[in-house]
C-alpha cells in the first residue's frame, strides 16, 4: 500500500515534471502578427478623397468594412457630372473691361478708391493692403459689416446672396462688404454692424 505521504510526494514529482516539460516545449501558442495597420492602410486606399472633414465620410458607428465614402460630386446639393453650375447674373459676372467704376470713400481709412462694379467693397479695400474684418466671405455672418453713410444701402450696393441683414438694417445703410458690389458713388464706414 502506498502511504499518504508517498502519494503526495509522487503527485508533487509528477506536477514538477509536467511544469518542466511545458517550460522546455512551450504550449505551442503564439501571438498573431498585428495586422491592424495594414487593414487601416487598405481601407484608406479604397475610400475616395472628399472635400469635407474626414468624419463626415464615414457611416455613423462604422468600423472596418462599415465605412461608406461619399465621392465628391455625389453629396447632397452638389452638381451631377456634366451639369453646368448656374451663376446668378449680376455685376459680379461682368468682365473687368466692361464693368462700371464707382468712387467709394472709405471714411475710416481716409481714402477714396475707384471700385469696379464686379468687385466687392472688401476686395477693393484688401487690394490696398488694409486689414479689414471678415470671416465667412459668403454673406453668412456679420464680421465684414460696414455702414453706408449716405442712406439706404440698397441704393448704393447690390448684395450677392447676403443672408444676415433684415430690411430695416439695409435701410439704415448696413452692408456686408464681402458680398456687396457698388452701383453708385458713396461713403463707407468699415467695421460697423447693426
Ligand atoms: S465675412 Fe461673413 S458675411 Fe462677410
Would you write up a description of this structure?
The protein is an alpha+beta fold. It contains 4 helices and 7 strands; from the N terminus they run H-H-E-E-H-E-E-H-E-E-E. Strands 2-1-7-3-5 form a 5-stranded mixed β-sheet. The radius of gyration is 36 Å and the shape is rod-shaped. 20% of the residues are buried. Bound molecules: FE2/S2 (inorganic) cluster. The site of FE2/S2 (inorganic) cluster has 11 residues, from loops.
In short:
The chain has 194 residues and is α+β, with helices and mostly antiparallel strands. It is built from four helices and seven strands. The strands form two sheets. It has a five-stranded mixed sheet with strand order 2-1-7-3-5. The chain has a two-stranded antiparallel ribbon with strand order 4-6.
Amino acid at each position: 500500500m502506498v502511504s499518504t505521504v508517498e502519494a503526495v510526494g509522487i503527485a508533487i514529482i509528477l506536477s514538477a515534471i509536467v511544469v518542466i516539460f511545458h517550460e522546455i516545449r512551450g504550449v505551442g501558442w503564439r501571438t498573431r502578427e498585428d495586422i491592424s495597420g495594414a487593414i487601416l492602410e487598405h481601407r484608406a486606399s479604397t475610400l475616395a478623397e472628399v472635400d469635407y472633414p474626414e468624419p463626415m465620410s464615414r457611416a455613423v458607428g462604422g468600423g472596418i468594412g462599415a465605412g461608406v465614402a461619399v465621392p465628391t460630386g455625389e453629396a447632397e446639393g452638389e452638381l451631377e457630372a456634366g451639369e453646368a453650375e448656374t451663376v446668378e447674373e449680376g455685376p459680379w459676372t461682368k468682365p473687368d473691361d466692361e464693368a462700371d467704376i464707382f468712387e467709394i470713400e472709405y471714411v475710416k481709412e481716409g481714402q477714396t478708391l475707384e471700385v469696379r462694379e464686379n468687385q466687392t467693397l472688401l476686395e477693393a479695400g484688401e487690394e490696398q493692403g488694409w486689414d479689414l474684418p471678415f470671416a465667412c466671405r459668403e454673406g453668412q455672418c456679420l464680421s465684414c459689416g460696414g455702414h453706408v453713410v449716405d442712406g439706404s444701402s440698397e441704393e448704393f450696393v447690390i448684395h450677392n446672396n447676403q443672408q444676415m441683414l433684415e430690411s430695416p438694417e439695409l435701410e439704415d445703410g448696413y452692408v456686408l462688404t464681402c458680398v456687396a458690389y457698388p452701383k453708385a458713388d458713396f461713403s463707407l464706414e468699415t467695421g460697423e454692424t447693426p
